[in-house]
C-alpha cells in the first residue's frame, strides 16, 4: 500500500521528468539552424501532447496491462485512473517517460523530416514500439505477477537506458537511414561538413534542464519514497560529471583544432546521464564514475563512427541515447554491487549476458519495426521534405513561421538571386518589425546603388559620346568616322559585301562666314548635319571629316545606289532655308566611291579626287 | 492540523507556481518584437515583486482576512506569519497566485502600455481587484466559517479559471480597449496585419515552463498532501494535450495558408490548461479531454473574434485566460462527477447556474472596476506611450536598453532617414560589442559609398567642365558661350530686359606669335582671359569665340553701360605687362551691341561688323 | 534519525539548488557579449562538473570530515555514501552548494579570463578555499561535536551569505584585480564605458531561475523537513522583492537617463536574495524587508564604487555576492529575533561582533589565498587571453565556436580591416546556414561595389586621358606637354639638374596633305608619333605642340646628349615607309636647347628660333 510520501515523490518526480521536454527542445533548437528552429520546437511540443493522448488510449495498456504470456499487455486501454489514485500517479510518471521516448528521434532526423509523417512516427512509437518493448522489460511494475519475458529473465534497466533511450535512438537510426543526410552535410567527395547550430547557449541551457530532469527520471523510478533516492541522484550526478569531463578533455586533445568543443562537453554529459540510467540504483559511486567516463568516450567516438558511415544525426542522439544506452545496460551487469547479485541469485557473467540480450532485443525490435514501417510509409508519403523546402527551412515551409534573422537572410537572398538589385521593389516591408526596418534599409541601400550605377553609366556614356562626337555638330567626329570606315572596309572585304562612301564639302563656305559672321557659319554646319542625319538610312554613318567636309559611309551599298542617295542629300541641302538670311542657298559638292578591296587611305583619296573634280566642274553636284 | 507532508506539498507547489513568472516572461517576450522584449521582461519581473509586496501589505488581508459579510476580508493586513508556520505556507502559495493574476494582462497590452501606469494597474490589481473577488470565491480557505458570498452559493473554481485567469484577462480587456491597438496592427481599410513575435522558440520554451508550473498551480490548490494530486495533474495534462492537439489540427485545416501554425498550438495548450483549472479536481479524465478540446476551439475562434472587433491582444491573453476561463468555470458544472453533486447536495443544472453567475460576476467586477479606473488614470497620465516611443520601441524609450538586433536596425534607420548618408558620423560605435562591429561596418560602407559618390560627382563635374570650357584659356568655349547667348536673348525678349554683348579681338596677334613664339601667343590668350575674367561682374559671361576672338555677354545691361565696361576691359588689357617681353603692349578692338529683339545670329553679326569697323578705324578701340 | 520526509525535502531542495547553474548561465551569458556567450556557458557547465568531482574527492572531507581542532576536516575524502543514505543526501545538497560557490566568480571575470586557468581556479576554489572556510562555519553540520572555530564562536550564516556568496565574490575580486578590466571598459582618460550584454531577456529569465533555486537554497538549508521552511521562503521572497523594488526606483531616480534600468532591477533582486541568505531563518518578515531594501542600495552604489576604482566586474558579482553578502551576515546580528538570542545565550551586540568577525575572516581568507595563488599562476601561465583573442571573442578563440550574429560581424570586420573590399574572396560560405546566406549577401554586395569602383576608376582614367592626350596621335597634348615642361624646368632649377628639349616640325607637311589627301596627313602624324614614342627613353616626354609641330622633353639630359637623341629621332623618321605611298620620304627639322635657368617661355622661344634656323638651313636637320 502506497502512502502519501510515495505519492508526493512520484508526482513530483513526474513533474520534473516532464521538464525533459523543454530540455530537449532547447538542446535541439540550439543545435539546429535558425531556419528550422521553430519547426523543431513545434515537433517537440506536438510529439509530447500526441504521445500523452496515445499513451492514455493504447500505450499504457499494452505496457502495463495484464500480460499476455509476457509479450504484451492486454487491459487498461483508455486508462481509467479516477477510482485508483495510485494508478493516476503511476500513469503520470509513465506518460512523461513515453513522451521522452517519443521525442528522442526528433533531434536525429531534424531539419529535413516532414512534420506530418514525423507525427505519424511519434504516434507509432508511443502507441506500439515503446510500450511493447516496455512490457517485456517493465511489464510487472504495476500489477504483480505480470512480468514481461525479459523481466522474467532478470533483465535490469532501472530507469530506462535501453527501454527509453535506446528505443528512441534506434527509431531515429531508421529515420536517418531512410530519409538520408541533410543537403550539404556530406560533399560529393565524401567529406563531412559540420553544420553548426544557431544557438549553442540555448543548447547548453537545455542540457542543464535535462540534467535536472534526469534526477527525477532516475530517482523517481523507485516509484516509492525511499532513502535510496539520494544515492541514485548522487550516482547520476557523478556519472554525468565524469562523462562531461571526459568529453571536455578528449575534444581538447583530439578535436581538429585542439580546443574544448562545446558539443563534446554536453554530449559527454548526456552520455553519462544515459549510461547511468540503467544502473543508477545498482552500482556504487565509483562504478558510476567509470560508467560516466566510458560513456563520454563512446559518445565522442560513436559520433565520428556515424559520420564515417555518412549517417547524419543532427544532435548526436544515436551515440548519446543509443550507444551510451547499450553501454549503460551492459555496465549494469559489470558494476552491479554484490549484494544485488546475491539477492537476485544470479552470477555476474550471467547478468551481463542477460543485459546483452536485452540490449540486442531492443535494437532488433525498435530498429526492425521502425525501419519496415518507415519504408512503407515513405513509399506512400515521402517522409522527407522537398529540397526547396529544406533550403528555405522548415519554419517557413511547414509553419509559415520565421525568425527575424532568417527573414532577413531570405530577403537578401532574393536580392542576390536576381542580381543587379532588379527586384528591390519586391521585398515587402512588414510594418513595425525589426526585419521591416532592416528590409527598409536594404531597399534603401539597393536603391542607392542603383542610382549610383545610373550616374556612373551616364558619366561613361557622356564620356563615350564626347570621345566620338564632334563638339559643334554632334555627329561623329573625324576620329570615329575614320575608325568606322576602317572596320566597314574590313567587313566588306571579309564578307564580300558592297561598301560605298560619300565625301562632300560645302561650297563657298568661307563666304558664308565672311558675309553672315561666325555664328551663321556654325549654324549652317549644325543645321546641315541635322538635316543630312535625318535623310540617312539606319545603317549609314555620318561624320564631320574636317572644317566643312563631311563623310557618309554606306555599308552594303553599291556605287549606283550610293550615288542615288548622295544626290538626294545634295538636293535636300540645296532646298534648305536659313534663319539668318532669306535668300541664301547653300550647296555641296561631293565624290562617291565604292570600295574595290582597297584600303581606307586609297578609298578616301579617290573620294577626295572626285570631290575636287565636282568642285571644279561647277559645284553643287556629286561625282562618281 | 497540517502535518509535514502538507507543508512540503504546499511549499513545493508554491515554488513551482512561481515558475509561472518566467514562463509568462518567455512566452510574452517571444511573442513580441525585439524592440519591446526587454520592456516585457522588466514588466513581468516588476509586477511580480510589486505584487508580492502589495499582497503582503493589503491583498492577503482583503482576500483571506475575517470576512465582512462575505464581501471583503478585514484582518491580516501586513501579514504576520512568523508565529504561524501554516500561515506562511498558505501566504506563499497565495502570493504566487496573486502574482500570476497581476501578470496576465501584461501580455495583452504589451508593446504600447507605459511602464509607470502599468505598474500602477498591477498595484491596483494585486491590492484590490484580485483579492476582493478572491474573497467572494475563496474567502473561507484559511479561516473556517469565513466564506465569501459566491463561495456560500456553492461556486466552484478549484484552482482559479475565473478567480485568477479571467480576472487577469478582463483587466487586460479594459486595457486594450482604452489604450487601443498597436500602430499598424489594423490598416486604415480595417484589414488586420499580423505582427509576429521575434522569438517563437523562446515562446515555446515558456509554454513548457507554464505547463510545468500549472501542475503545481492546480494540484497545489488542494492545499494539503492528498492522493488526489495525481488525478488533478493527470486531468491537467490531458486537457492541455487535447487543447493543443485541437489547436494544431484546427489551424492546419482553417488557417489562411493551411499549415499547423505555431501560435495555434501553444494557445490551444494554454487554453486547455486554463479550461481545466476550475474543474481539475471535480471532473473525470474524459471530462478533461472534452474540456481541452472545446478550450482549443474557443481560443482559436475567440482570437479571430477579437480581431474582428479590432481589439489588439498581443499574445492572445483574453481568449486564453478569459474565454477559456469562462468555459472552464461553466464546464465544471457540466462535467462535475455525480459523487460531488451528491456530496454538495446540489443538482447539475443548479451548479451550472451558479458557475455562470460566478463567471459573470467576475467579468462585471474586474472589467468594470478596471475600465473606470483606467479611464480616470488615462485622463491624468496617458497610459499609452507616445507614438514615437512606440516606434523606436519600449526597450530604448522606457529603459535605455536595447537588443543587438534592434540597435542595428535603429542605426540603419537613422542613416536612411537623413538619406545620402549625411549623418554617418552620428552613429556612435559602442566599443567591443557586436553591434559596435556592425555599426563600424555600416559606417565604413557608408563612407565608402560617400567616397564613391564624391568620385562620381567629381568625374561628372570634370566632364561637364571639359564640355563647356576652352582647353587653353579655361574660360567658356565657343559652344557654351553661344548657347548662353541664345538663352540670354530669349530671356531678354521674354522679360523685356536689356542685353548687350562685346565681341573683341586681339590686334596683330599673328605678330606676337611670330615674334615671341607659340608659347608667348598662348600666354597672351591665357593671361588676357584671366585678367578680363577678374574685371567682369558676377552676372557677365565670358568665352573664347575663336582663335583670338572673345565674347562677353552682359545681361541686364544697356548699350551705354556695356560700352563703359567694354572700354574698361580694353584699357585694362592695354596696361598689362608680359613676362616674355618687357616692352610689348597688347591691344584689342571690339564691337558692343545691345539686343534689339533680333536673334543670336544677327546680333553677333552686328557685333562683328562693329569689330571690323573698330579695327579699320585704328584698332585699340571699342565701336558701338 | 532522519525520516523519509527529510530525505524528500533535502533531495528535492538539492535538485532545485542545482538550477542555480542554468540560472547563473542564463544571467551571465545574457549580460556578456555574443562573442563570449558560448565561452561563458561552457565555463558554467565545466566548473560545475569539475567541482562535483573535486568536492567528492577532497572538498567534502575538508569541510565536513572529522575536525582537526576546528580548522579543517580530515576524513571522508572520496566520499563513500553507499552505506549511509543520509550521507548521500547531505553530499548532494553540499555538492550543489560547492558548485554555486565555484561559479560565482565566473561572471566577474568573464570575457577575458582564459578557459584553462579558469578551470584551475575553479578546482582550487572547490577543493580548498570554499571547503576550508566552510569547515570553520559549518563543520559540525554532519558529524556531531565537529564544529569549526567560527561556528564555535556562534557565527550564524544560515544558508551561506558569507560561506557561499562572499567567498565566491572575493575569489572573483582577486581575479578582476589580477587580470584587469576588459579592453575598452575604461577609456584612457579614465571614463567608464558601459559594455552592454547581448541578451537582457535571457538574463532576466536567468534571474527568475535563480530566484526559484534560492528557495531551495535557503529553505533546504534546514537539512530537515520542518514547518519553518515556509517562513524561510517567505522571508526570501520578501527580501528579494524589496531589493528589486529598491533597485527599480533608485535607478529611476539616480541613473544617468533617469529610467528604470534593466540591470538595476535584477541586481537589486539578487542583492536581496544574497542579503537574506544568512538570516532567512532568524529574522522576521519586516527584518527581511529592511535587509532587502538595504541590499538593493548596497548593490547599486557598490557597483558605482567598483567602477570608480576602475575594477571591471562584468555582471556585478562582487556588489551582489560580496557586498550584499557581508551586509546580510551583519544584518543577521542586527535583526535576529529575540527568542534566538535567548536560545543561544548571546547579546545582540556580541552577535553582531561575531558576524563581523566571520565576514572579515571570509574576506581575508578567500581574497588573500586566491590573490596569492593567482599571482603565482599568472606568472607561469597568463590567466588572461591575448588581446587579439579578447577582440575576436572567446567563443571562437577558445572553443572554435560561434554564434550566427558574431560570425556575421566577424566577416564584415575582416572586410573592413583590409579596406577596399580586397579580401572579399576570403569569406568562406558555410553551406546552408543563415550566416552562409548573409555572407553570400556581403560577398555579392562587396563584389558589386568592386565592379562599381572599377567602372568609376575606368571613367576617371578615361577622362584624365582625354584631358591630357591629343585626340589624333594619342600622345600628350599641347596643354599637358607645356605643363610638364614647366614642372621639369622648376625641378631642373631647384635640384640643379640638366634639362633639354627638342622642338621639331614636319617638313613640307602641307604638300603631303595636298598630294595624298587628309587621311594621309593624319596617318603621317599618327605613325610618326608612334615611331618617335618607341624611340624615346622612359624618362622622356613627348607631345604634339601644334599642327605638325612636336615637343620632346628630356630631363637630366645635357645639350650634347639631347642633340644625339634628337638626331636619332630625325634619322628614324627619315627611314619610315608609308603605306599610302611607296616612295614618299617624310623629314623633320628641329631645334634642341638646354635649359639655362630661363623660364618655359624663353626656352621654347629659343627652340623655335633654332627650328626656323634648321628649316632655313635646308631642312631634315637638328639645330642646337
UniProtKB/TrEMBL annotation, chains A, B, C:
The protein's UniProt keywords, in alphabetical order, are: Ammonia transport, Membrane, Transmembrane, Transmembrane helix, Transport
Which Pfam families does the annotation name?
Ammonium_transp, GGDEF
Supply the gene name. Answer: amtB4
Q: Which GO terms describe its biological process?
A: ammonium homeostasis; signal transduction
Q: Name one GO cellular component term.
A: plasma membrane
Q: Which residues form the GGDEF domain?
A: 497-624
What GO molecular functions are on record for this protein?
Answer: ammonium channel activity
Protein name, per record: Ammonium transporter
Give compartment(s): Cell membrane; Membrane
Question: What membrane topology term does the record carry?
Answer: Multi-pass membrane protein
Q: Which organism is it from?
A: Acetobacterium woodii (strain ATCC 29683 / DSM 1030 / JCM 2381 / KCTC 1655 / WB1)
